[in-house]
Amino acid sequence: MAQETTRDDSDSPSGSVVSPIANGTNKKDKKSSKDKSSSSKKRALSSGERRSSVSKPARDPSDKPEESPSKKKKRKTSSTAAAVAAPPTITEEVSPSTSVTRSPSPVIDFDGLSRPSRGTRERLEETEAQKQERLDKMKGAVRTLLECLGEDPDREGLLATPERYAKAMLFLTKGYQENVRDIVNGAIFQEGHNEMVIVKDIEVFSMCEHHLVPFTGKMHIGYIPSNAVIGISKLPRIAELFARRLQIQERLTKEVANAIMEILKPQGVAVVMESSHLCMVMRGVEKTTSSTITSCVLGCFESREKTRLEFLSLIGVNR
């Protein structure tokens, strides 16, 4: 008979014998534990609070996501502890005569002038004699420009050009002398309306502040009221007010949106502008078919994608 050979446990490299049955059991245990942990994570996510779709505060303060009660309690506790720990500070006293010079809007001045400077104030409040003095100064500057270009400002075709150009520039920048509240003139009505209102294809003409040449295009304005509506003719008038200044398209779009948001206090405002800039058509890159589109969305238009897409669809941007 063949002699049976037996293997000692000490012959194995690790000094112990690993049973294949035990090895399979360990793998199953590991797999089941992973399944349990993943299922518990899923249950935690499903049973937990839903995360807000607005992860970061929007540009408009009213669009900040609401905090859960637990977070509010934690913040309140931490703020209370910080107040106790912090030493008392000296607060600056404000005299009763101090008046507020800025509104909550980031770009519109309290009196509606937008970016008012010393020169803007002087132009707004000047007398007839001062107006004539300003015109004469501009005429002299234009005459100097003509001479620097190599032209003869005294020839027949250019005799009245300095005056014509000066008056034209004053007209093209008349928005500096206009006030948002005067333009609206109380045309806000409590109608209990809370559906979208759009005025589209508003023709806009403005002057590029970089090269003093025009850019022209169309502006679309939409808003969702909070019961109050504004006279629809006021929306093109507000657009005209800010366009009749030295501008860039990005700032013009934002100023119109913020002005409507401040005056009307709606649920949201959306402004889209498409224009052609002569500074890149007549000179520079000379791209005659290019157009520039800018947008500014505030309130519910920024926080709700469906509302924003509805507006873009109605004005024809998505086509």
Automatic annotation (TrEMBL):
PROSITE patterns given in the database record: GTP_CYCLOHYDROL_1_1, GTP_CYCLOHYDROL_1_2
Key words of the record: Folate biosynthesis, GTP-binding, Hydrolase, Nucleotide-binding
Catalyzed reactions per annotation: GTP + H2O = 7,8-dihydroneopterin 3'-triphosphate + formate + H(+)
GO biological process: folic acid biosynthetic process; tetrahydrobiopterin biosynthetic process; tetrahydrofolate biosynthetic process
Record has Hydrolase as a keyword: yes
Residue span, GTP cyclohydrolase I domain: 139-315
Compositionally biased region (Basic and acidic residues): 1-10, 48-70, 119-129
InterPro entries membership: GTP-CH-I_C/QueF, GTP-CH-I_N, GTP_CycHdrlase_I, GTP_CycHdrlase_I_CS, GTP_CycHdrlase_I_dom
Low complexity bias (residue ranges): 78-108
Matching Gene3D superfamilies: 1.10.286.10, 3.30.1130.10
Enzyme Commission designation: 3.5.4.16
Family as reported in the entry's similarity comment: Belongs to the GTP cyclohydrolase I family.
UniProt name for this protein: GTP cyclohydrolase 1
Species name: Neurospora tetraspora
